[in-house]
């Protein structure tokens, strides 16, 4: 079974207003607000690619890019 | 196509406050349009006045930013002249049911093929936090410092009674559900109403001590329950979520087309 794996979590810092919705609802605490009050990725390795941050972001500033991973842990 | 391709990116970042639910509604709506694979050139979005109405400026569809409460009236005009287009009409709670209340019920009565989205934040945000007909009793607003005494409309019941053939409700917390309901509403032939509870942390949240945007969203999880669930049956204080009405009735533009055909036959005699 191919599994979705995080390739990159893109955050558009020009659009982010730092409301903290993504930080609060991330089930794995992948995101945090930095000292400029912008969302930033601190634990990308924990991301389970649920994309809840991307779906709920009111500023449309988050894009979750994924890759497929096969059974042997190799990336497509 | 990515969701961002449906935006007029030159106007971003948008003017809504940090944490405003209207951005999430825009997000869910664009995903619905993307998943349906609709062509930008076949979509028309009309909107009235208010924070919510600014949405039509951000989408890369044909758009009309019209008079307060009259978005549905303009949409009716567009739809009748070009029935092949998809009409999306996002409105705020006041825009839809106070200023545009009459247009709302009559569009529902006609069953014209338009998708009306009520972005319900229960307050007039743009003008400084006055209470709206959807605020309900016991709410603090700038025009009700000692709480409101007005009962609120129930959008779902009102739309159902007025004759809408697709009626649904969801919240900004339930973003996936919002996208799936919007998809169904757009595909539905007839007048569809989707009420989306949307947080206003700046006015409603601050006045009513509901916390920040994320806390207000979390609250939506607690005060709603899916239609037909046991939780909703046991606790009538909860708001129902999901599809309330899905029925078939003759659509207005189709019927109008038939009348035009009939009249042309009469003229040929």
Automatic annotation (TrEMBL), chain A:
Residues 7-36, 38-67 form the 4Fe-4S ferredoxin-type domain. It comes from the Bacteria. PANTHER family: FERREDOXIN SUBUNIT OF PYRUVATE:FLAVODOXIN OXIDOREDUCTASE-RELATED (PTHR43122), IRON-SULFUR-BINDING PROTEIN (PTHR43122:SF1). Pfam families: Fer4_7. One of its GO terms (molecular function) is metal ion binding. Keywords: Iron, Iron-sulfur, Metal-binding. This is 2-oxoglutarate ferredoxin oxidoreductase subunit delta. Transmembrane segments: none annotated. It comes from Desulfopila aestuarii DSM 18488.
Automatic annotation (TrEMBL), chain B:
It comes from the Bacteria. Keywords: Oxidoreductase. GO terms for molecular function: oxidoreductase activity, acting on the aldehyde or oxo group of donors, iron-sulfur protein as acceptor; thiamine pyrophosphate binding. GO terms for biological process: cellular respiration; small molecule metabolic process. Pfam families: TPP_enzyme_C (PF02775). The keyword Lipid biosynthesis does not apply. Residues 49-196 form the Thiamine pyrophosphate enzyme TPP-binding domain. This is 2-oxoglutarate ferredoxin oxidoreductase, beta subunit. It comes from Desulfopila aestuarii DSM 18488.
